[in-house]
């Protein structure tokens, strides 16, 4: 399959176009998705100007009708304009679909092309589906026999044990065989063509010899009952006793575990409210030991987790969600095991429900969840292993241990495009839209072969409010938080776009946006502040982009690509979320398949306030710059007394300045 701005093309084995679907108008970005309902959908994202969000136009959907899907009405069901029903002489089946109403059994396929035996043919009959009934697959298949009468068509089916029925078109003398598996039928009012289509299904009926033998068997039924009854009773007693023993053993095990959890609770000296919550969660977990939720990945015991990590011996990272350890599965594949700390009031069932959603998300730029563990209050996640670690280890200078291997410019562009694709899939490609809430270099993982994957998506719901930082409604990391976190504005996918813009600037410069070193001069005229987003804004205004690139690259960059990445980053940093592009548009601009937006300088003025705050307050932030930033967020009509309250409370643990929050870290 090949997709471009003009349409969708299906290619044959020789590379030639077999089917062409022209889609108008021209679109720079199209997304093809095969849905769980069996339909293929093509969405088009039309390029828009900087003041409006991109539009998703449903450009194409196939098949257009639900009756053309294999099992719309179940096996042997009939799809009509009014809905699903059964053909004549058929009735609804308890297993779904339809079955012959005379009690005969639909023939089974032998799954090969061998001829059936004559004895089998004597027991085979054909049940008529009536006139005007077609089969969903016949529209896409060539006739198995042409130019012959209906008797020849039936003989062809009878001589093939994999044939389950046949359809005959009287007007064209065409014969179609249904082999291996039966799907749904289509009424002539729905399908193309007239009512000259005849359908027959192969069924098996009981022979006279079997009916005669049944009478002789009934005479011996009393003897069989006398022999089998004691055996059945003994077997039932054994099963009951075994079930009682197993149930008693499980209850005893649960009591011991509950006692251990209570002892742990006392040692931690929890408050009364927390103790009540913990005991309730323990009871909930005991009741949910056998949770079955569709879509759950592999479930490991804590003992298995300890074995695969060698008792958590090799720690490879730590973050806001907990520590990460290196492990190895029994099949030899490496994994990363994350200990989730502080799952709040969530019970095991709620936790497993969230994990089922995360585990069903599959994309080449998203880290795959291999399994999980939920025992008592323990919550662990098992991810695929990325051997190069997080982006910050390859991009930023290390405090100790020497500089990291230098990321070349092409690698940085590939990282930007790969991470953008992963976020775009979270926002637009999933059945459940997911906002990451913590986009930063530490959550972008690298592996050999140029693999780039987003990590920790979907985990924000698993944390307690206290783990979100000093503001209980916030998720994320200081320095990457969008300005809307300061207000009551809704948090949308454009919040992730802001954080991604900060990551793009760090990719360009090769250091954190707020650096404590004296190397803040960029050559663009900004030597008073080492806040790089401000330097990038000034470089954009001066038209000097190449000087913004990482000096360690020694000019080995593509100037046009540096300009493109900087412009995309500044568009992502617009203070008004509605002016920021979606991640789908960001992907198109980074790849060069969509028109490049021009940043709106008037919506980036807050970067100058952040930059002056850095220059005036040093590494600590705060001071008078905090008041300016708060006034900027509140507007001229803001509550001055509220501003004074925030300023006087700067000594409290719950206080954090605007510069510290959305500005540099």
UniProtKB/TrEMBL annotation:
Region annotation (Disordered) ranges: 256-281
Topology term for the membrane: Single-pass membrane protein
Domain Apple: 110-202
GO cellular component terms listed in the entry, alphabetical order: membrane
A GO term for molecular function: protein kinase activity
Subcellular localization: Membrane
Assigned keywords, A-Z: ATP-binding, Kinase, Membrane, Nucleotide-binding, Signal, Transferase, Transmembrane, Transmembrane helix
Binding site for ATP: 339
Pfam families membership: Pkinase (PF00069)
Alphabetized InterPro entries for the sequence: Kinase-like_dom_sf, Pan_app, Prot_kinase_dom, Protein_kinase_ATP_BS, Ser/Thr_kinase_AS
The Protein kinase domain, residue ranges: 310-601
Record field: transmembrane: 224-249
Protein name: Protein kinase domain-containing protein
């Amino acid at each position: 399959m090949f997709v471009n701005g003009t349409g969708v093309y299906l290619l044959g084995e020789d590379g030639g176009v077999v089917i062409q679907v022209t889609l108008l108008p021209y679109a720079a970005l199209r997304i093809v998705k095969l849905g769980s309902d069996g339909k293929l959908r093509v969405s088009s994202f039309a390029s828009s100007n900087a003041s409006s969000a991109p539009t998703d136009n449903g450009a194409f959907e196939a098949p257009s009708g639900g009756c053309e899907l294999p099992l719309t009405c179940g096996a042997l069901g009939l799809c009509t304009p009014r809905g699903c029903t059964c053909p004549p002489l058929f009735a609804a089946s308890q297993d779904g679909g339809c079955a012959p109403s005379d009690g005969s059994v639909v023939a089974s396929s032998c799954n090969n092309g061998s001829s059936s035996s004559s004895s089998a043919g004597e027991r085979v009959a054909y049940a008529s589906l009536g006139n005007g009934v077609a089969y969903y697959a016949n529209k896409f298949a060539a006739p198995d026999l042409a130019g012959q009468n209906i008797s020849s068509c039936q003989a062809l089916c009878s001589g093939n044990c994999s044939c389950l029925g046949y359809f005959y078109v009287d007007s064209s003398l065409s014969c179609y065989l249904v082999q291996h598996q039966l799907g749904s039928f289509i009424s002539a009012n729905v399908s193309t063509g007239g009512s000259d289509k005849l359908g027959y299904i192969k069924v098996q009926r009981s022979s006279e010899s079997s009916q005669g033998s049944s009478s002789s068997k009934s005479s011996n039924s009393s003897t069989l009952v006398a022999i089998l009854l004691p055996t059945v009773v003994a077997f039932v007693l054994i099963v009951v006793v075994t079930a009682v023993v197993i149930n008693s053993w499980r209850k005893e095990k649960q009591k011991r575990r509950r006692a251990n959890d209570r002892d742990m609770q006392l040692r931690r000296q929890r408050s009364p409210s927390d103790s009540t919550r913990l005991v309730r969660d323990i009871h909930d977990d005991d009741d949910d030991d056998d949770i079955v939720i569709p879509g759950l990945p592999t479930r490991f015991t804590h003992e298995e987790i300890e074995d695969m990590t060698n008792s958590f011996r090799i720690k490879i990272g730590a973050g806001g969600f907990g520590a990460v350890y290196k492990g190895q599965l029994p099949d030899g594949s490496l994994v990363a095991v994350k200990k989730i700390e502080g799952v709040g009031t969530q019970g095991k069932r709620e936790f497993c429900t969230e994990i089922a959603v995360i585990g069903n998300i599959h994309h080449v730029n998203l880290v795959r969840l291999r399994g999980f563990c939920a025992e008592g209050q323990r919550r662990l996640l098992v991810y695929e292993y990325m051997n190069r670690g997080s982006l910050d280890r390859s991009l930023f200078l290390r405090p100790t241990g020497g500089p990291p291997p230098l990321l070349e410019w092409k690698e940085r562009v590939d990282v930007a495009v790969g991470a953008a694709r992963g976020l775009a899939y979270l926002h637009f490609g999933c059945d459940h839209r997911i906002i990451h809430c913590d986009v930063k270099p530490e959550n972008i993982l690298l592996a050999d072969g140029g693999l780039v994957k987003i990590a920790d998506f979907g985990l924000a719901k698993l944390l307690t409010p206290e783990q979100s930082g000093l503001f209980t409604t916030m998720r994320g990391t200081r320095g990457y938080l969008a300005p809307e976190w300061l207000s009551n504005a809704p948090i949308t996918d454009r919040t992730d776009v802001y954080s991604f813009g900060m990551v793009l600037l760090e990719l360009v410069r090769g250091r954190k946006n707020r650096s404590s070193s004296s190397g803040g001069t960029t050559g663009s005229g900004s030597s008073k502040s080492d806040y790089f987003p401000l330097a990038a804004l000034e470089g954009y205004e001066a038209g000097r982009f190449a000087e913004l690139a990482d000096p360690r690259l020694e000019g080995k960059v593509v100037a046009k690509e540096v300009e493109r990445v900087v412009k995309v980053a500044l568009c992502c940093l617009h203070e008004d979320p509605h002016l920021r592009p979606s991640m789908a548009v960001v992907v198109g601009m980074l790849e060069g398949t969509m028109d490049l937006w021009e940043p709106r300088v008037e919506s980036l003025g807050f970067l100058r306030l952040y930059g002056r705050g850095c220059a005036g307050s040093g590494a600590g932030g705060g001071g008078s710059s905090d008041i300016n930033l708060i006034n900027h967020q509140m507007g001229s009509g803001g509550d001055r007394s509220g501003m004074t309250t925030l300023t006087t409370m700067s000594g409290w643990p719950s206080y954090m300045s605007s510069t510290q929050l959305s500005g540099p870290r």
